[in-house]
Amino acid sequence: MLKYSKVFGLFIFVFLFAMCNQKSKNDAQKETILKGAIDVTVDETVKQIVDDQVAVFEGTYYDAKITVKPKSEAEVINDLLNQKAKVAITARDLTAEEKARFEKSKINPRVTPFAQDAIAFISNKSNNDTLIALKTVIDFMQGKADPRIKGLVFDNPNSSTVRFMKELAKIKDIPKTGVFSFKTNDEVIKFVSENDGMIGVVGVNWLSQPSQNTTDLIKKINVLSVKGLNSNQYYSPTQNDLAEAKYPLARDLFIINCQGYSGLGMGFASFIAGDIGQRIVLKSGLLPYKIPGRKLKIRNEIIKDNE
């Protein structure tokens, strides 16, 4: 009797195992490069451009559903490394150490650059001086007081803007006095619009495509032109200055796909790096990784309208 019980138990186990495998196969078949549902974890400083890309992608492929989850850069990278996120958009490439961790887990991330963004300095509209030297900001971050700056305001202590500026200033920690942080770029814009003498540090995408909460606040701030460390000229975070590599605070944007199969993540990456996605980037005020071409139709003769 015990022998039959063991055989029956083994049969049940094999049956359940087969059912689970079949369920996994069915789930995998539900997702392709153009249909299914995925979460995309996004660096909060570039959320606006990603929302635009998702809206057009979903409007083109009705069976696709992409949920955007904005987080700080540190959270985005940690989610990828801990396999809590399969697709992410960042303002930097993976480091050699991070790539080694993925390789150890037998994961081969596909990293696709798709745009050039920039970090912008903003001030209150009452400040008539719209120029600032990058060295002045770096000196302030190194703890050197400057009468022209009452304080620096960041979006989040773990954000890509903080990491970017810390690397430029070659410091491990930001000063305990004179440097403030909130949670979002919206809050930085609001604070600077209400406080004279404060310099806000935000992703330029939030200025070229302000949210509903900041549309009116944008009118109360100045976007400062910046003089680089090895330059005598001041440049603005415009498409033209980015394209000519003149603005000193430019940075590349990437979509990182760790799905490991031909799923919706691959389809979305191909979309934003393709012609339509690059045109969306161009319209947003950022610089596309590949400038979309223009087709000209040349006629041999002028066709006059009938009088």
From TrEMBL:
SUPFAM superfamilies: Periplasmic binding protein-like II. Gene3D superfamilies: Periplasmic binding protein-like II (3.40.190.10). It comes from the Bacteria. Residues 1-20 form the signal peptide. Residues 36-274 form the PBP domain. Keywords: Signal. The keyword Signal applies. Pfam families: PBP_like_2. InterPro entries: PBP_domain, Phosphate_ABC_transporter. This is PstS family phosphate ABC transporter substrate-binding protein. The lineage of its organism: Bacteria, Pseudomonadati, Bacteroidota, Flavobacteriia, Flavobacteriales.
